[in-house]
Write a structure and sequence with these properties.
The chain has 114 residues and is an all-beta fold. It has no helices and eleven strands.
């Protein structure tokens, strides 16, 4: 099964930026969609952004205009550029690959200080 490894998380001040990356162990073109999810303490995991194999994207309303998802199929990478970060963006961010099943990465912590 595919292995997904996230990187790029960390501590940033409100208004700052981070770029998350997800490295897949096999071709991301074999999945219908790649996505980023997040889970804050006490909350359910929620979709942040998704990108299909055809390049169509969708975003949670809370991040529209601030976050951008992209894919590099040649390198099997998916990125999440996060700008204008807010304290409420603090969460563990997970990469997911959707095919017949959904596969998850181990997550990366993003903490936004006020």
């Amino acid at each position: 099964q595919v292995q997904l490894v996230e990187s790029g998380g960390g501590l940033v001040q409100a208004g700052g930026s981070l770029r998350l990356s997800c490295a897949a162990s096999e071709s991301i073109n074999s999945f219908n969609r790649m996505g980023w999810y997040r889970q804050a303490p006490g909350n359910q995991r929620e979709l942040v952004a998704g990108i299909t194999s055809g390049g169509s994207t969708n975003y949670a309303d809370s991040v529209k205009g601030r976050f951008t998802i992209s894919r590099d199929s040649a390198k099997n990478l998916v990125h999440l550029q996060m700008n204008s970060l807010k304290p409420e963006d603090t969460a563990v961010y997970y990469c997911a690959a959707d095919g017949l099943f959904r596969f998850w990465g181990q997550g990366t912590q993003v903490t936004v200080s006020s």
